[in-house]
Write a structure and sequence with these properties.
Helix content of chain B: 25-40%
Distance between the termini of chain B: 41 Å
Structural class of chain A: alpha/beta
Helix content of chain A: 25-40%
Oligomer: heterodimer
Radius of gyration of chain B: 15 Å
Structural class of chain B: alpha+beta
Largest sheet of chain A: 2 strands, parallel
Order of helices and strands of chain B: EEHH
Strand order of the largest sheet of chain A: 1-2
Strand order of the largest sheet of chain B: 1-2
Shape of chain A: globular
Chain lengths: ~160, ~90
């Protein structure tokens, strides 16, 4: 198979890149090491479906995508769920991975969607003084474009084309 | 404890002070000029962010990724409709 672009990761960086490439009719391969994750309970109100659309769990099943369910830390079984979703040599599809380095220990997660799995809809613009201090050249135009991208893609990414 | 680790391939003015330029292009250590970059290789995730933001990084990572990919690809077509984006997101 030939692709115009290969995108490694599917978080807020990779999904932006892939969506912008696809919008220009480029053929894109996204590489993601994590599986799809779905909340066991429905959170909020699902968006209405248009003609020819289906909900993501149905789309995942129809397309034989690897999908798992979020741990539930808010009930008595939650702690067991967290341990069950650790990413280890024996459970290579787990959600959480501990890594021990010489000077740091990290807890990372792997999922389709990357950081969007856990960002809780928090989209705060940093203080311009902070951006200047670290040398990041982003202003109102760039942050406005980012908010618009999130608005444009929130619907499309939660409603999938029907199978067939 | 750091809850939003950022950086690793950070933005800088040239290869002596960063891994990528402000448009996500990866500096080429073999280039004639310290700010020369590789063709077709970009970093557009949180590792590009050169320091702590003091707020959640989601919007900043998205803004930086859009800036980099927009610079590489040129101005986008109109924002995708639900149907068009659905068909391209799940081919």
């Amino acid at each position: 198979m030939d692709f115009d672009a290969v995108v490694i990761g599917s978080g807020f960086g990779g999904s932006v890149a892939a969506s912008q490439l696809a919008a220009r009719k480029k053929k894109v391969l996204i590489l993601e090491r994590g599986t799809w994750w779905i909340s066991p309970e429905t959170l909020g109100k699902p968006p209405p479906l248009g003609p020819g659309q289906q909900r993501m769990p149905d789309w995942l099943a129809a397309n034989k995508q690897p999908v798992q369910y979020w741990p539930r830390p808010d009930n008595k079984d939650g702690l067991l769920d967290v341990f069950a979703s650790l990413r280890t040599g024996r459970h290579s599809d787990g959600l959480y991975k501990f890594s021990n380095f010489d000077d740091a220990t990290t807890l990372t997660a792997s999922a389709v969607g990357g950081g969007s799995m856990i960002y809780s809809n928090v989209t705060i613009q940093p203080d311009p003084a902070v951006l200047g201090q670290i040398g990041l050249n982003l202003g109102a135009a760039e942050f406005g474009a980012a908010r618009q991208w999130m608005t444009d893609f929130r619907g499309p990414l939660t409603r999938c084309p029907a199978a067939g | 404890m750091i809850t939003h680790p950022l950086g690793g391939c950070t933005i800088g003015p040239d290869r002596t002070r960063g891994a990528i330029d402000e448009y996500g292009r990866v500096f080429d250590p073999g280039g004639a000029h310290p700010a020369d970059t590789h063709q077709g290789l970009f970093v557009v995730d949180g590792s590009a962010i050169p320091g702590a933001l003091a707020v959640n990084p989601t919007l900043t990572i998205t803004a930086q990724a859009l800036k980099a990919i927009g610079h590489a690809l040129g101005p986008s077509a109109a924002a995708p409709t639900v149907a068009a984006a659905g068909s391209t997101s799940h081919p």
